[in-house]
Amino acid sequence: TLSYIPYNGHYLPAVKGIRENIERGDEFVSRPDDIWICCYAKSGTHWLWEIVHMLLGNSTDYTSKPKETTQFDFHDAASFTNLPSPRVFNCALWWHQLPRDVIQKKSKILHCMRNPKDVAVSYYLHTKELHSVYQYSGSWEGWVQLFTEGKVVRGSWFDYEMEWSKEGGKDENVLTLMYEDLKKDLVSEIKVIAHFLGVSLPESRYLEMADRCSFGTMKQCKQMSEMENKIMYRKGQVGDWKNWFTVTQNEKFDAVYKAWLESGGPAMCFG
Ligand code: A3P
């Protein structure tokens, strides 16, 4: 069993007021220069959060505010009114759960996808660590089952990414990134993000930022709580799933993934 808040057939984390916060999104007044980082759980939100702040501020310092301060569904929308521009929001919301004004005002949205097998592992450990929120005391085996069936908080990875691809994919204000690409060549991806945000900096600056945002440096140098360090900057690897999935679990997962691809899921390269 897993603790969650049901919402229109969806699963939200058991955070007080979360349903109301999403509903009040209708009243949210977006600004064209707002920037949104929207990713399924454990797909690179913290990483992008630092990169975006560095680019906007032409800085190699880590943000001093935790990303939760502008996690949209954790707060009443009205509380963001006094923030100075450009505001950087983050969330794990589905496309249809985003405040409509974000789309209408054409705010820029960064969306990062990650190999769902690595997402499943990272999310399992996250859920176990944050037991007070998720109340999950099941096994890895049970988790793979729940994840594959989409019965985890934030819902089905497959449906989530399908919706983002179909709806967000055709919107020029959405930049879709791959976690694995960031791992492979962070400097190039930082440049892609900079271009998307309309930021232009000297080459050396992008190199410095990539260095500061490498996993090892962030884990070691960014000031954060022990818990955050443990679950938000855990291992940062591509392919950790191989240490977790049994052959049978992998075969079952592959079958679901293949069916998803055949029904229009976006092709992904896992590096
Ligand atoms: P792991 O648990 O596999 O290590 P999110 O921020 O969306 O919750 O995603 C968290 C995942 O991104 C964690 O995955 C975390 O380690 C990884 N991550 C965070 N910073 C990273 C970085 N600089 N480079 C690579 N991975 C990073």
UniProtKB/TrEMBL annotation:
Gene3D superfamilies reported in the protein's UniProt record: P-loop containing nucleotide triphosphate hydrolases (3.40.50.300)
Residue ranges of coiled coil: none
Keyword annotations of the record: Transferase
Domain called Sulfotransferase: residue spans: 32-262
Superkingdom of the organism of origin: Eukaryota
InterPro entries, alphabetized: P-loop_NTPase, Sulfotransferase_dom
GO molecular function terms listed in the Swiss-Prot or TrEMBL record: sulfotransferase activity
SUPFAM superfamilies per the UniProt record, alphabetical: P-loop containing nucleoside triphosphate hydrolases (SSF52540)
Keyword NAD belongs to the record: no
Family: Belongs to the sulfotransferase 1 family.
Official protein name in the record: Sulfotransferase family cytosolic 1B member 1
